[in-house]
Amino acid sequence: QQIVNHMRHALDEEEFVLYLQPKYSLQDNRICGAEVLVRWAKPEGGMISPGEFIPVFERNGFITKLDYYVWEKTCKLLAGWIAEGKKPSPVSVNISRVSLYNPRLVEAICGLTDRYHIPRELLELELTESAYTTNPKAIKETMERLQKEGFSILMDDFGSGYSSLNVLKDIAVDVLKIDMKFLSDTDQEGRSQNILASVVRMAKWLNLPVIAEGVERREQVDFLHSVGCEYVQGFYFARPMPVSDYEKLVSEKK
Ligand code: G
Ligand code: G
Ligand code: MN
Ligand code: NA
């Protein structure tokens, strides 16, 4: 209970801040969007990364509140850019597996984009692949409702779970995100490279854009280019950054 009060307090005090990690188009090296990644800025200093607190929040249910908070902040951000006359690229937010089972999820997201007058193609939704396993039927239904409402669904961490292909068969997601952790450095025979190349090819057959994430090295970029992967995200290009830094970066590049 104490930790719950602590988190409520943190929400009220706006200790959760949005960071943005740019996504790039490999074809022209331009920024084509960003992913929102939340950070917890403690008043006594220091940033806590979500890897530490999201799993806790998923267990105690607080994640639904935090997710909603992040989506609303993101809508405000987009609304601000639009009001300034900018033509923002889409921004994606993460949806926790817990938020996914909120029966009012679709209403909540539609309500936010309506309230802030955000064109729905500007708010993209990232769902981790492993979330599908618990109740695939309910999730499929929710996904399809969101898509009908005009939102794109990005399948996060594709290939990391146990049922990637199964999920892909059942749900017509809009974008695949593949993690480069997939490519191990110790792989002498290039097995994982071959698998990655095949996934990109499969995605093309399915008419699905692919974003490679976790791109850290030049050789990975060259490889991705050679197999026709179109979009990238990762430390090699840019780390997650405060909103003001992202705005600066985007205005410089244009
Ligand atoms: O930024 P970092 O790599 O530390 O993020 C760690 C994990 O936290 C990632 O799996 C990411 O998807 C998740 N995450 C980041 N921000 C959010 C958020 O706003 N909501 C949810 N549910 N997960 C998030
Ligand atoms: O699960 P999800 O894909 O939403 O999480 C993205 C996480 O990956 C974030 O925590 C982000 O900080 C991290 N990340 C982004 N780019 C890189 C990268 O190039 N290398 C590594 N190791 N992590 C990255
Ligand atoms: Mn993500
Ligand atoms: Na991911």
UniProtKB/TrEMBL annotation:
It comes from the Bacteria. Residues 1-254 form the EAL domain. This is Stage 0 sporulation protein A homolog. May play the central regulatory role in sporulation. It may be an element of the effector pathway responsible for the activation of sporulation genes in response to nutritional stress. Spo0A may act in concert with spo0H (a sigma factor) to control the expression of some genes that are critical to the sporulation process. The lineage of its organism: Bacteria, Bacillati, Bacillota, Clostridia, Lachnospirales.
